[in-house]
């Protein structure tokens, strides 16, 4: 990680702004733009700060960047973007993309994305990425000029390969299962967490009603009045405390969501491997059949049933010259095929090697991040309980003075 | 003429509130003045050709001289409790008779003989009898003693005595007639104050009752969701290696939170909800007591008015009026004393109940 960009440069997504503009179909639309600020980190500065460079990007440009990276580095588990639309909402959160809380959480997610890319040993060196950070104008054209869209594998081809591949590397098959499981368990967890949050919100908020009624009741009481009144105040505090608690929990949910989306990135790498492996198997199969054809023509034996064999039996054999020509063509093809096969094999092995290296790196990152997230969740719960203890201790005192 | 038992020496000690259902022998600080211990338990279902009903076992232990024995065990059904209450109301129209659990619950979710319903009723009946036992006047009532000690057949024959249905109806008619007369003109200031207080109190206690039920409902829904939350983490830990332990740890913590939530809910339903409900019923009872006092006063006032108009038969009237005046005074005093006692009890109950809620919550968060 010595040379990674993150060490040399501070990157932040510091602001979000609503804009209106015309889109590709010349229709007016509102969108949010995010301000990316970068500043070089001086290793031995004399108190001088480097100037801050900044530019504005919108979400669709982030998407473009990520697509480019996924296609260009198929052996890398590319960090995911924060969700496009709010998902796993519980009733208080709105599902509106323009909602300020959503925009804020997205801003943080985008910053996180940039930091992840910048700290990746391979990705951080990409020129397009660098330009994304530094060059506002003309970046889109630059990306398109790389022609990366052409390199992208079609979905259909990938699906086909998944079903037909015969000998994928076992580790990738396991990894695919793992990423499926991870995705399903995290999304289940997030759904239930949202429901739990909803209910907890309800419990806290109803206690707020106590505050009001206690206060009204205290008006007619003499000895109990003060105790009731102050207890009511504590009930209000209790009811209000849930808002901050749940907001903090949203950040935890976002951390889990990142890994939910990472599962998709893992699957993409597995798919690429399956595609390459399938390609390889097809090429090998093709080569084998050509070799057979060649042999048959050369020796005149028909080992396997073929239409050629049948037609030649029915309509007479070809002339020796025709046969020679065919054999020549086939021999050339076979030679080409063998070279292709060799290079495909090499490609495949390289891919497996470098992909697996990145996957190991990813695994470590994931374990570290998730552990930290779980710990921070536990800490949050403890803090919530401590607040609860405080409020109810106070309330108890008020009650006992009634 | 209904007899009014003189309010004897008002017990100076802090009234002991039977807020603990489980251990009725638990005492707060203060001198042990209790000499009558009652429990209501063991509901049993009886099926006859005509009806099905539940009886409860009522066990009494006492050191009082007027009881022939020191221990009694009888079985009583809800009807018997209703009878006792109406006898007490008859004998002491301006004393605050504790509430009985309702005949049925309108909410409709609880079946007539469901276990939950029976248990709630049993607890309320237990409370009812203990409140009477604590009352300096009511606990010496003769019908109360018979209720606690008589065998079933003895009780039914005793019930048949006393003012018949018709005469009781007559009393009710007179009562309604006098209440129609509207606000009593000579009502002492104190009782007007009490009336105003009770109107607001009744409103607030009803609200609190609703709020408490709502909280219970929300907590139950929260508990239901939490039950699902823990196992997901365990499921996840099955796919992981490094973080499996952490995930399992979280799963077990969530399960512990679930159990703590259950305890919290139980605390609510055992302590807060019954007390709030009891005081909702109490506020209705108090309005009734105030009305009856007004009626008694109304009788006096109307006689006084009549006297002012009829100069003849003065002597006869004045004797009657004298009696009525006494009656009114006794009624007022009884009510005032009982009111003070009730207020104190209420305060004590509220304080201890809400403190209990607070403690429950503390325990919950500590766990």
Automatic annotation (TrEMBL), chain A:
GO molecular function: phosphatidylinositol-3-phosphate binding
Protein's name according to its UniProt entry: SNX4 protein
Family: Belongs to the sorting nexin family.
PROSITE patterns in alphabetical order: PX (PS50195)
Keywords: Protein transport, Transport
GO terms under biological process: positive regulation of autophagosome assembly; protein transport
Pfam families: PX
GO cellular component: early endosome membrane; plasma membrane; SNARE complex
InterPro entries according to UniProt: AH/BAR_dom_sf, PX_dom, PX_dom_sf, PX_SNX4, SNX4, SNX4_BAR
Originating organism: Panurus biarmicus
Start and end residues of each PX domain: 12-140
From TrEMBL, chain B:
InterPro entries: AH/BAR_dom_sf, PX_dom, PX_dom_sf, PX_SNX7
Family stated for the protein in its record: Belongs to the sorting nexin family.
CDD domains for this protein: PX_SNX7
Annotated organism of origin: Alaudala cheleensis
Descriptive protein name: SNX7 protein
Signal peptide feature range: none
Coiled-coil ranges from the UniProt annotation: 307-334
Annotated keywords: Coiled coil, Protein transport, Transport
PX domain mapped to chain residues: 34-155
Example of a GO cellular component annotation carried by this entry: phagophore assembly site
One of the protein's GO biological processes: protein transport
Pfam family, one: PX
SUPFAM superfamilies in the record: PX domain (SSF64268)
């Amino acid at each position: 990680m010595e040379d990674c960009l993150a060490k040399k440069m501070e990157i932040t997504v510091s602001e979000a702004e609503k804009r209106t503009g015309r889109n590709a179909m010349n229709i007016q639309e509102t969108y949010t733009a995010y301000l990316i600020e970068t500043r070089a980190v001086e290793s031995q500065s004399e108190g001088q700060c480097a100037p801050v460079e900044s530019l504005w990007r919108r979400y669709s440009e982030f998407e473009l960047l990520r697509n480019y990276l996924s296609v260009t580095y198929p052996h890398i588990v590319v960090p995911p973007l924060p969700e496009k639309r709010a998902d796993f909402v519980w009733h208080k959160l709105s599902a509106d993309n323009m909602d300020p809380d959503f925009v804020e959480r997205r801003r943080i997610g985008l910053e996180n994305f940039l930091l992840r890319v910048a700290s990746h040993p391979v990705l951080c060196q990409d020129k397009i990425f660098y330009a994304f950070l530094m060059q506002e104008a003309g970046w889109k054209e630059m990306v398109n000029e790389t022609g990366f869209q052409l390199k992208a594998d079609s979905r259909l081809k990938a699906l086909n390969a998944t079903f037909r591949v015969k000998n994928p590397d076992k580790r990738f098959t396991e990894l695919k299962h793992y990423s499926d499981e991870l995705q399903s368990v995290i999304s289940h967890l997030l759904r239930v967490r949202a429901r739990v949050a909803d209910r907890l919100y309800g419990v806290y908020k109803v206690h707020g009603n106590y505050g009001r009624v206690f206060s009204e009741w205290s008006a007619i009481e003499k000895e109990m009045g003060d105790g009731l009144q102050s207890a009511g105040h504590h009930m209000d505090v209790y009811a209000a405390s849930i808002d901050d608690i749940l907001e903090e929990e949203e950040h935890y949910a976002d951390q889990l969501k990142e890994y939910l989306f990472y599962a998709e990135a893992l699957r993409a790498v597995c798919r690429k491997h399956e595609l390459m492996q399938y390609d390889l198997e097809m090429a090998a199969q093709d080569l084998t059949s050509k070799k057979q054809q060649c042999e048959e023509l050369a020796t005149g034996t028909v080992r396997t049933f073929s239409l050629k064999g049948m037609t030649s039996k029915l309509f007479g054999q070809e002339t020796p010259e025709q046969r020679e020509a065919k054999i020549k063509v086939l021999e050339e093809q076979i030679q080409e095929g063998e070279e292709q096969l060799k290079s495909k094999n090499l490609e495949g092995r390289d891919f497996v090697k470098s992909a697996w290296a990145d996957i190991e790196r990813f695994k470590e990152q994931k374990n570290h991040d998730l552990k930290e997230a779980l710990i921070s969740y536990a800490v949050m719960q403890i803090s919530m309980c401590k607040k609860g203890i405080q409020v109810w201790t106070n309330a108890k005192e008020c009650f006992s003075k009634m | 003429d209904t007899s009014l038992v003189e309010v004897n020496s008002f017990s100076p000690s802090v009234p002991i509130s039977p807020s603990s259902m489980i251990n009725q022998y638990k005492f707060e600080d203060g001198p042990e003045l209790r000499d009558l211990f009652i429990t209501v338990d063991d509901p049993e279902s009886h099926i006859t050709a005509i009806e099905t009903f539940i009886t409860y076992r009522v066990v009494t232990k006492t050191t009082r001289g007027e009881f022939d024995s020191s221990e009694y065990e009888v079985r009583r059904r809800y009807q018997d409790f209703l009878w006792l209450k109406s006898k007490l109301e008859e004998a002491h129209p301006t004393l605050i008779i504790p509430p009985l659990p309702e005949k049925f619950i309108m909410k409709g979710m609880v079946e007539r003989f469901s276990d939950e319903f029976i248990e709630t009723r049993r607890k309320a009946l237990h409370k009812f009898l203990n409140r009477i036992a604590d009352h300096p006047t009511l606990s010496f009532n003769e019908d109360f003693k018979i209720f606690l000690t008589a065998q079933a057949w003895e009780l039914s024959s005793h019930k048949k005595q006393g003012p018949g249905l018709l005469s009781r109806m007559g009393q009710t008619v007179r009562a309604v007639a006098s209440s129609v007369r509207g606000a009593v003109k000579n009502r002492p200031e104190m009782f007007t104050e009490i009336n105003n207080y009770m109107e607001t109190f009744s409103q607030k206690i009803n609200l609190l009752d609703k709020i408490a039920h709502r909280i219970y409902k929300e907590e139950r829904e929260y508990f239901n969701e939490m039950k699902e939350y823990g196992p997901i983490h365990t499921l996840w830990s099955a796919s992981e290696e490094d973080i499996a332990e952490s995930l399992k740890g979280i799963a077990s913590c969530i399960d512990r939170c679930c159990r703590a939530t259950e305890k919290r809910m139980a605390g609510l339903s055992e302590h807060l909800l019954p007390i709030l409900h009891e005081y909702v019923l109490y506020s209705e009872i108090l309005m009734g007591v105030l009305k009856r006092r007004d009626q008694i006063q109304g009788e006096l006032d109307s006689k006084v008015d009549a006297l002012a108009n009829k100069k003849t038969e003065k002597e006869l009237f004045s004797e009657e009026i004298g009696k009525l005046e006494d009656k009114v005074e006794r009624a007022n005093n009884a009510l005032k004393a009982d009111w003070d006692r009730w207020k104190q009890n209420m305060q004590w109950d509220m304080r201890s109940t809400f403190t209990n809620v607070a403690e429950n919550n503390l325990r919950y968060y500590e766990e």
